[in-house]
Each structure stands twice: as structure tokens, then as C-alpha cells.
Design goal:
CATH topology: Glutaredoxin
Order of helices and strands: HEEEEHEHEHEEEEEHHEEH
Low-confidence stretches: 1-10, 12-21, 204-208, 231-241, 263-270
Mean pLDDT: 81
CATH class: Alpha Beta
Number of domains: 1
Largest sheet: 5 strands, mixed
Shape: globular
Radius of gyration: 24 Å
Distance between the termini: 100 Å
CATH superfamily: Glutaredoxin
Length: 270
């Protein structure tokens, strides 16, 4: 079974988190068990791009939501597709890593070095096309990536025959305090989904009032695995906007009449 076929199966079966019956041995145990609301251990240390260990807490100090990627840098296909899809979505939403949110990408392969992580970071920052000081690429330190993966429910396994990792395709959105807030699945992400997931994780700390309005009109549908229009709130928002618009028109008419004074509108003397 080819590595590509394994990757596709991991995407279809693993990301769905469905029952493992009928799966080939290479994919047994692969998937995602959502851990919404669970806190990750921010004291876990990983190797930063400079080669020194750093606690995960370092990337949660700015009161900003965090996108977490669990990938490996020598992955032949699926990880690249996921990071490419994430980068494409990032280009289409307001804000940037290091200003409005953080991104922490961690290799699940303990043999990968910080030099490789640094090279991978350079490639994706160039592709992103904007300054992104808040997008970090880390490698394992003392087996902590396995612990982090367990805490967010990310199950993967190493296939010794192909010397590759079988894993699901998803990104995790965490709150500024390190709690799991949302999972987005696949290798292509809707910009609106990513924007709303970040705003939801940030809650009142989001800088964009428009995002708070969007969250009022959209909610996450677990079955669709996407944010969908919440019709009731949307109609309420529409009614409120209509009342505001009518009020603005009446106010302008009142001001115009007040400026004209008595007898405004005038007449013709005969």
C-alpha cells in the first residue's frame, strides 16, 4: 500500500474519528478524539528554531488564540497539503500571526531537527507573504510531542515498512489560556471558518468587532464540521439593523425640519 494511499485513508477515516473496524493495520489507532475544553500542559518543552528548549507557555503569553499544527516536516504529501491549505486561508483573513493570533507547528517525528524546522518555517513564511513573527516551527524534546498529541486527541502511528507516519488531517484552535476550542478538518480550510474559530477562541479579546457580529449570526455545526448561518440570530440582527436604519432616516428628517424653523418649506407671496 503506497504512502499516498495511506495518507488519503488517514484523511478520510482518521479525521472523521470514526470506528476503526475494517481499517488496514497501518491505520489502526489513527484518528482524532476531540477534547473540546481540555487544557494542554503549557509547561511541556519543545526545541525551538534556535536549537534551545522552550516551554509551550512561551507561545501563549500574548492573550491571543493559537493555531496548533501537528505534522512532520519530511512528510511526502499530507502535511504539506495541510500547511498549504492553512496558509491559503490565512492570506484571506484579517490579522496576522504575532499580532492577532499565534501559530505553533510541531513535528511529531522525534528524529527531526531544529535545522529542518527552521528551513520549513522559511518556506512557509515566504509563501504567506506577510510578516509572521508569531508562527513558530518546533521539534520534539524528551518525547513531549507524544504527550501533547494525547492531550488534544491527535492519534498517529509510525509505519516501519514505509518509514512514514500515518495521521489525520486537522488543525486545532486553542484559547489564549491553552484550552482546546475547535478542530478544523481537511487540507483546505474555509477562510470564514478559520476566522470564526479564532474569534470564538479569543472571545471578548478579539480585536475585530465585525468578528463578534459574525459569531452572533454563525455557529459551528458538528455534523457539517463548519460554521453555518444561525437563522434566528441572523433575522434578529437584520431586524435590528432595519430599526437602526429607520431611526437614522427619521433623525435626518427631524434635523432638516429643525434647521428650517417655523414655516420651513416656505410659500409664495402673492
Amino acid at each position: 500500500m503506497s504512502v499516498r494511499f495511506l495518507a488519503v485513508l488517514a484523511l478520510v477515516w482518521g479525521a472523521a474519528g470514526s470506528a476503526q473496524s475494517g481499517l488496514p493495520p497501518e491505520l489502526e489507532g489513527v484518528g482524532i478524539s476531540e477534547q473540546i475544553g481540555r487544557s494542554v500542559d503549557l509547561d511541556l518543552q519543545f526545541t525551538a528554531e534556535n536549537g534551545y528548549p522552550a516551554p509551550l507557555r512561551r507561545y501563549f503569553q500574548q492573550s491571543r488564540p493559537v493555531i496548533l499544527n501537528l505534522v512532520y516536516y519530511s512528510c511526502p504529501m499530507l502535511c504539506n497539503l495541510l500547511l498549504n491549505g492553512q496558509t491559503a486561508a490565512l492570506r484571506q483573513i484579517p490579522g496576522s500571526p504575532g499580532t492577532d493570533f499565534e501559530i505553533v507547528t510541531v513535528s511529531i517525528d522525534p528524529s527531526e531537527t531544529f535545522d529542518l524546522a527552521r528551513q520549513k518555517r522559511a518556506v512557509y513564511l515566504e509563501s504567506y507573504g506577510r510578516p509572521a513573527p508569531g508562527w513558530r516551527f518546533l521539534t520534539d524534546y524528551q518525547g513531549n510531542v507524544k504527550r501533547l498529541a494525547e492531550q488534544v486527541g491527535f492519534r498517529y502511528r509510525y509505519d516501519a515498512r514505509t518509514r512514514q507516519y500515518a495521521h489525520a488531517a486537522a488543525i486545532m484552535i486553542l484559547t489564549p489560556e491553552g484550552k482546546v476550542a475547535r478542530y478544523l478538518y481537511g487540507v483546505q480550510f474555509k477562510p470564514l471558518d478559520l476566522r470564526l474559530a479564532l474569534a470564538e477562541a479569543a472571545r471578548s479579546k478579539t480585536r475585530f468587532s465585525v468578528d463578534r457580529l459574525l459569531l452572533y449570526c454563525f455557529h459551528y455545526d458538528p455534523q457539517a464540521r463548519s460554521y453555518v448561518l444561525f437563522a434566528t440570530n441572523f433575522m434578529r440582527a437584520g431586524a435590528a439593523l432595519s430599526v437602526l436604519a429607520l431611526g437614522a432616516v427619521l433623525y435626518r428628517l427631524w434635523r432638516r425640519e429643525a434647521r428650517g424653523g417655523p414655516g420651513a418649506g416656505g410659500g409664495v407671496c402673492g
